[in-house]
Amino acid sequence: MVNKKAAVIYSMIVIFICFLPYIQPDLISGSDSPYHLYRIYSLADALKNGVFPVKVHPTMAYGYGYGTGFFYSDVLLYFPAILILLGVSLATAYKCFALVIFIGLYSSMYFCMRKTSRSMEASLLAATLYVTSNVIIGGFYQDFRMGEMTGLIFMPIAVVGCYLFLKKEVNPIMMIIGFIGLLYTHAISGLLGAIICVFILVFSIPEIIKKTSKIIYLILSATLALLATASYWLPMWQQFRAIRFKVSAPWTTEEQNVEGISTNLGIRGIGLPLITVFIILFVFVIIISIFSKINRSAEPVEAVGSSNTDSSYEFGIFSAILASCLIVVTSSYQFWHFLNSHGIHLIQFPNRMYGPITILICIAIAVFSDKVIYFCVSTFKTSSSISKREPKVQGKHKHKAVTVTAVLTLVLTCSVLCSLYNYSDYFKSSTNDVINEVESGKIAGLGAGEEWLSLETDRSMLATPETAYDNEGNSVTGTKSGGDVSFTFVADLSKQYYVVPFVFYRGYRVIDEAGNHYDVTSNNGTGLLQVMMHGNDGNYSNKNMGTIKLTVSFEGTSILKLSYFASIIGIIAVIIFGLYWKNRSTENVS
Q1: pTM score of the predicted model
Q2: 311-325, 397-411, 557-571: least confident range
């Protein structure tokens, strides 16, 4: 068997190979690189100017402030942002972040597969296939999908955690942590993970019928996950209730982006190497199941968290079937047209399904390769070699079987590493142009769809970041300070309102020199922040007398502040629940 030291060395080599294209002075950028790099850079700039937590990124949108933090959680981005504050360049900070993501992806799949398979070799193979899959390599080196890549760290944890809890009644804390991570990294991945778990729930109905208390614990787990992530979804819900964003009128729909099944399985889809390994193992396992008479009573003990071999094997079959169905769905124009025609717009691009499909295939491969490894071990066993009189012979034959399996695993792994070749053209297209544009503020950093701008706001309106306009169209020059965090200008009390250079989100505060607050709203024509020239108490009746200095800044809402408190309570509750379940399991064993 592969020992732990060898497994660590092997894993380091695999991760190094995946990360190798980043070991160059410049940065490989993709279609989403301006947006995600600007998220990191503007987050660091906001932290430098004393803003924490950051919901509105002040320097984005040409200094008008972009509320990307409301809709796209920045939790993991604080790591590269802090590196920048420590003096690291944006490119280096991102590369360090990318390395951490690669390690997270590999470790996540390995950890999950060790929970469902009996052999380290099967887990190493699944982790290798996962981190070298098209969805991961393409996400890094072609599309720069950083949100999705971080989400794919937690999706296997959520999916496998759900299976272990429903089928084997293992501590649900793994599932809870998986969904907390998904919501704090990539909401769409969280939705897809939840859909997979619904299928697992249906798959687990026989176990639930036997023990209905699982439903109660499942509801409690969902509640804890939602409570712990309240600081993300609760403020987002508040913003959606107050404003109609461009995401309300999708800039692209799933039916417009459907691709044929050959494309979805090809070198730019899920990937021929992964599909090939999957089919070979699936066929081999079917042949074993039909024609081979394995002594099941002699099977080794399952991995931690397992109760019997058959349930893990069933999970592999379930994953294989579900992955196959999702491949068909991804290629089905009729399915997406039906959803879109009924106003259901979930993921914009059907190829976002590649992530869940890849995870399910890797789960199936781990379970099937585990079956193959056991078959190889069993094949070498004879009545003489397993006798108590010849333990050395037994070890020798078992070693041969594992060696053969390890070689096969290595061959399959090498074939998967060839998928890196598919993106070799992108490895050579390194440049620092995007870095320079981000650091100089030449780009808005709004993302391809500009989803988090209001429907009324156009990019051309974001041209005068230090100018306010009154209700008559007269301009007033003010001053942005603290890294565009606040805007100060002199207002005429006789005016009805001023439109100030901030994109409107709930939570902005306007205060004058005397400490009086002014009402704010969204301007109907532009979607920018509009300051009403009277106080909240309506006592400013002497509006024709002079001017007053106003300061505009984002302070947050009561719901936003409540959400932070709720998340702290939720995280504490998750820890307590995990300890409770652990003690409960210990007592049951005793």
Answers
A1: 0.89
A2: 397-411
Neighbour count for residue 333 (Cβ, 10 Å) = 14
- Quote the tokens at residue 429: 């297209």
Neighbours of 519 (CB within 10 A): 14
Mean pLDDT of the 451-463 span:
92
DSSP element (H, E) containing 113: helix 90-116
Q: Are 328 and 236 in contact (CB under 8 A)?
A: no
Token pair, residue 570, equals: 């939720």
317 CB-near residues (< 8 Å, 6+ apart)? 364
Q: What is the mean pLDDT of the chain?
A: 85
The pLDDT of residue 587 is 53
Which tokens hold the place of 584?
């409960």
Percent pLDDT > 70 in the chain is 84
What is the per-residue pLDDT for 406? 62
> Token pair for residue 148?
């999705």
Q: Alpha helices, DSSP H only, in 418-457?
A: 424-427, 433-440
Distance between CA atoms of residues 237 and 239, nearest Å: 5
376 has a pLDDT exceeding 90: no
d(Cα 140, Cα 100) in Å, to the nearest integer? Answer: 13
d(CA 168, CA 306): 6
Q: Taking a C-beta distance cutoff of 8 angstroms, is the pair 464, 480 a contact? A: no
The span from the CA of 423 to the CA of 133, in Å, is: 11
For 528, the token pair is 């920018």
pLDDT at 378 over 90: no
Residues 457 and 503 sit within 8 Å (Cβ to Cβ): yes
Beta carbons within 10 angstroms of residue 247's beta carbon:
17
Task: Tell me which residue of 464, 418, 506 sits closest to 134, measured CA to CA.
Answer: 418
Q: Is 297 exposed, middle or buried (0-12, 13-18, 19+ CB in 10 A)?
A: exposed
Instruction: Write the pLDDT tens digit of every residue in 238-278.
Output: 999 999 999 888 888 999 999 998 888 887 788 877 888 88
**pLDDT at residue 575, as a whole number:** 94
What is the C-alpha to C-alpha distance for residues 322 and 320, in angstroms, rounded to an integer? 6
Residue 184's CB is within 10 A of a number of other CB atoms, namely 22
419 neighbors 137 (Cβ within 8 angstroms)? yes
What does the alpha-carbon distance between residue 55 and residue 367 come to, in Å, rounded to a whole number?
42
